[in-house]
Amino acid sequence: MAAIFVSGIGTGVGKTFFSSLYLAKYGKKNKIHYWKPVETGPTIDSDFELVKNSVPLPSNYFIPPVSRFAFPASPHYSAKLENSEVDLKTLEKKFEKYSEENILIEGAGGLLVPLTENLLYLDFVKKYNISIVLVTYSGLGTINHTLLSIEAMKARKVHCYGFYMIGAWNNLSINNSETIEKLSEIPFLGNIDFPGYRLTKNSLVAYSIDNFDPEGKLEILF
């Protein structure tokens, strides 16, 4: 079985959108579970709830977060505001429990976000030898941010399947993808733009089939 870690170059880049599309297209066929280990911010409309309510998979395919904190910030700080901390022992036990399943794990923010004051998300990924799909945006500024994230993975010898771009596709974004791929020697996995309207379960599946990974090359992740 396989585990994939979906990370991004920062907050709001489209990790949850990518995860939802991937699960909508390949989740049922490949029996892929979804897990966001730690969440911060309001429970209503959280990433976990959004994916669970949008993707038509059995409820047991969605693994609840181990730790939730109300303030929208990095987990170490949100936990501190509640005089708490991320429960690393439970987090590790949960991962080991599902280690025999196909599991898509969505991170919080970027790779170097602190889970605790002493542990970065990337450290957790390295410990369990999980491969990463890096979600980035297609527009101005993405080259620097994406290359920095890739350098962080390389420095820790963490495997990256490639980077996936979200946003408009034009001459600038095409050049951005080519430049990042050339300089990093990390594969470009594809691009998709936000649809501009709210996706329901039915429309998410249709949108993913019509627009996401049209060549089917991402299915090999599992």
Key features of this structure:
single chain; 222 residues; alpha/beta; Rossmann fold; seven-stranded parallel β-sheet; 8 helices; 11 strands; 39% helix; 23% strand; globular
Structural overview:
The protein is globular. The termini are close together. α6 (142-155) runs parallel beside α7. β10 (160-166), α7 and β11 form a beta-alpha-beta unit. The model has no long low-confidence stretch (mean pLDDT 94). The protein has 8 helices and 11 strands. Helix content is 39%, strand content 23%. The protein has one domain: Rossmann fold (3-Layer(aba) Sandwich). The strands form 3 sheets. Strands 4-2-6-1-9-10-11 form a 7-stranded parallel β-sheet, with helices on both faces. A two-stranded parallel ribbon has the order 3-5. A two-stranded antiparallel ribbon has the order 7-8. The longest helix has 16 residues, at 15-30. The protein is an alpha/beta fold.
Write the layout of secondary structure elements.
Blueprint: E1 3-8, H1 15-30, E2 32-35, E3 38-40, H2 47-54, E4 62-63, E5 67-69, H3 75-81, H4 88-97, E6 102-110, E7 114-116, E8 119-120, H5 121-127, E9 131-137, H6 142-155, E10 160-166, H7 171-184, E11 188-192, H8 201-211
Parallel strand pairs: 1-6, 1-9, 2-4, 2-6, 3-5, 9-10, 10-11
Antiparallel strand pairs: 7-8
Helix pairs in contact: 1-2, 1-8, 6-7
